[in-house]
Design goal:
With about 270 residues, this protein is an alpha+beta fold. About 20% of the residues lie in helices and about 20% in strands. About 45% of the residues are buried.
């Protein structure tokens, strides 16, 4: 079952790949552009200036092809396909949630998180959840999965401060479904990637990135190389590494593994 709710920003995690896009993923994983990549370059290059959006960072060119068997949730999101339950999946997922609950206890105060290296992304832009990201943990996640070291902590605005609601784990953008499943069972959670991003030409107004009439960005109507070229923009087939959000304080498993969607939607794991 899909639950849709409006959110105010689709670019909350846009800084994540800046620090890690240039680092290679698993040695055993196939090259991300082995068969169907539109853009051949794998080294990050500066994204074009995004006019009209104050504080928007530059992005690396994390080009790549979608993983076989993935689900598409709109033109700017791809999810790993839900696998049949396997023996031990519930126990593995439950252990991750239990570990994360303990890990997050100390971070109920967001200032403790900041002192431990979790830095807020775009704190001055209204968002349903604010990502406090630890770049060291993000880099470490390229090599191995450690449930005690989430890449980001998720906070909701609470008066003049923040309330801790969850965390985000990441994995290399060219990780295979089996490698993602080894981290968190694909019968329980959907890993997701943000895809088909078109950056507008320099001077593009904020209204062209956000809202119902957006053309560019993760809320935009442009989702192909040809359309982006025609609009004078720059196309990125894959914007970020794989990621999964976990809300360990929820009691409903579907809400624990809820997927934050681009373009103004959230979706729960199908039940």
């Amino acid at each position: 079952m899909i639950r849709i709710v409006v959110i105010t920003s689709a670019l909350t995690i846009a800084a994540l790949s800046v620090a890690i896009a240039a680092v290679k993923g698993f040695a055993a994983a196939p090259a991300p552009c082995a068969t169907s990549c539109i853009v051949a370059e794998h080294t990050p290059t500066p994204a074009p200036a995004v006019g009209g959006i104050s504080g928007m960072p530059s992005m690396g060119n994390a080009s790549g092809a979608g993983m076989g068997g993935d689900m598409s949730m709109g033109p700017h999101m791809t999810l790993t396909a839900l696998r049949p339950p396997q023996s031990g999946d519930q126990q593995r997922a439950g252990a991750i949630v239990a570990t994360l609950r303990v890990t997050l206890t100390k971070y109920a105060d967001y200032r403790v998180a900041e002192a431990d290296g979790y830095k807020p992304f775009l704190p001055d832009i209204a968002q349903p959840h604010y990502h406090f990201t630890n770049w060291v943990n993000g880099l470490a996640a390229l090599g191995r999965f450690d449930p005690t070291r989430p890449t980001s902590l998720l906070y909701a605005k609470d008066g003049s401060g923040y309330k801790l609601v969850g965390a985000m784990y990441t994995a290399p953008r060219n990780a295979t479904p089996d490698q993602l499943n080894a981290r968190i069972p694909l019968s329980i959670a959907h890993w997701h990637q943000h895809v088909n991003m078109c950056w507008g030409p320099a001077g593009t107004a904020a209204s062209d990135y956000f809202g119902s009439n957006a053309r560019f960005g993760l809320q935009g109507s442009i989702a192909t190389q040809a359309a982006c070229d025609s609009a004078g923009g720059r196309f990125q087939p894959v914007l970020f590494n794989w990621m999964v959000h976990v809300y360990p304080f929820e009691t409903d498993q579907a809400k624990i593994w809820q997927v934050d969607m681009p373009g103004g939607m959230d979706a729960e794991r199908p039940t």
